[in-house]
Amino acid sequence: MTASSFDRVRPYRWDGTTLALLDQRRLPFQEEWIDCGDAAAVAAAIRDLVVRGAPAIGIAAAYGVAMAACQCEADSAEAARKVLAPTLEHLRAARPTAVNLAWALDRMDARLAALAGRDDWREQLAAEADAIATEDLAANRHMGELGAALIAPGSGVLTHCNTGSLATAGLGTALGVIRVGCEKGRIAAVYAGETRPWLQGARLTVWELQQDGIDATLIADSAAAHLMAQGRVQWVIIGADRITANGDVANKIGSYQLAIAARHHGVKFMVVAPSSTVDMATARGADIEIEERDPAELLGIAGHRTVAEGIAAWNPVFDITPASLIDAIVTERGVVEQPSVESMAALFGHGAG
Ligand code: MRU
């Protein structure tokens, strides 16, 4: 097995004019592709979790902008920038927490601004979206090596949510480290939490690993502390939706309690994310908007109601893990151990915030 032989699933297909998205709501039993004919369809797909995972939603949005450029009748890049501004804002509003979405849109907008006076701005915008995806895959491959090197041979690991090929341009962030760690014999046992309520772990992560021939054991989210108490895992490895200037991490709901349990049990905690997830303009995790989704996601499973009528539910879908509970943040630029304002600034410079 090699890292590239792991790399079989893709969340999107781009044919130069149209974006198709693998409908992650239907996995693992149905592999349906949805054709997005315009940027509004891409925004709806991001909002409705057809495509999800921080890097993947940024990539999808970038292709949404490329599509909008092809469809827009502006006769110059300068005119197109004005015409496309509401489209970019519509895409930006699709989900609030993962900064990769805003990062990708800002990058597309900056590219369009730089294309003033050129005739090939439509082709160049499509090339920029391609570059965002290509760079993400390269970052994941590099982070896979950097993260796996931190893990002692024969370790057990626990991951949360889905951070694999489905959530990125390929290979994955935390799941990339796990794939490379398995390939190199550093990881002997993989556990994945279900990730209630949307079940990214149960529906997506163990399915991806199964296709690679990597054995993974699914646990209920509430079994994590017991797993650690039994000494079965030496690392918790997660991805991120946003990392702030002080090293706080927003990630899937439940990440914070994993970090607390890990610290209690002497289990190390690793966050793996590309620099497109780092938001140096935001000072701390408390400043991040946490997405709250429909409480109905908690009131049933797969469309079947499990909770009595009239019960209220609260459904925040991300939480903040404070930097003090994190042992290592792995990015393609390098590893930040024991993250702090100083160590983050050393790698990423000073933010505007
Ligand atoms: O709500 P989701 O499924 O988009 O949440 C995804 C996560 O929280 C991932 O851990 C994060 O985006 C990192 S994916 C490489």
Q: How would you characterize the largest beta sheet?
A: 7 strands, mixed
Summed up, the domain count is: 2
Number of helices: 10
CATH architecture of the largest domain: 3-Layer(aba) Sandwich
Q: Helix and strand succession?
A: EEEHHHHHEHEHEHEEEHEEEEEEEH
- The termini sit apart by 44 Å
Derived from helix and strand composition plus strand pairing, the structural class reads: alpha/beta
Q: What portion of residues is helical?
A: 25-40%
- The value of Rg in angstroms is 20 Å
Q: Which strand-content bin applies to the residues?
A: 15-25%
The CATH topology assignment of the largest domain is Rossmann fold
Mean pLDDT: 96
Keywords:
single chain; 353 residues; alpha/beta; Four Helix Bundle (Hemerythrin (Met), subunit A); Rossmann fold; 2 domains; seven-stranded mixed sheet; 10 helices; 16 strands; globular; binds 5-S-methyl-1-O-phosphono-5-thio-D-ribulose
What does this molecule look like?
With 353 residues, this protein is of the alpha/beta class. It has 2 domains: 3-139, Four Helix Bundle (Hemerythrin (Met), subunit A) (Up-down Bundle), CATH 1.20.120.420; 143-348, Rossmann fold (3-Layer(aba) Sandwich), CATH 3.40.50. It is 38% helix and 17% strand. It contains 10 helices and 16 strands. The protein has a 7-stranded mixed sheet with strand order 6-5-4-7-10-15-16, sandwiched between helices. Strand 4 (155-159), helix 6 and strand 5 (187-193) form a beta-alpha-beta unit. Helix 2 packs antiparallel against helix 3 (77-92), helix 2 runs parallel beside helix 4 (99-114) and helix 3 runs antiparallel to helix 4 (99-114). It is globular. The model has no long low-confidence stretch (mean pLDDT 96). Bound molecules: 5-S-methyl-1-O-phosphono-5-thio-D-ribulose. 5-S-methyl-1-O-phosphono-5-thio-D-ribulose is lined by residues 52-55, 98, 161, 163, 167-168, 173, 200, 239-241, 251-252, 317.
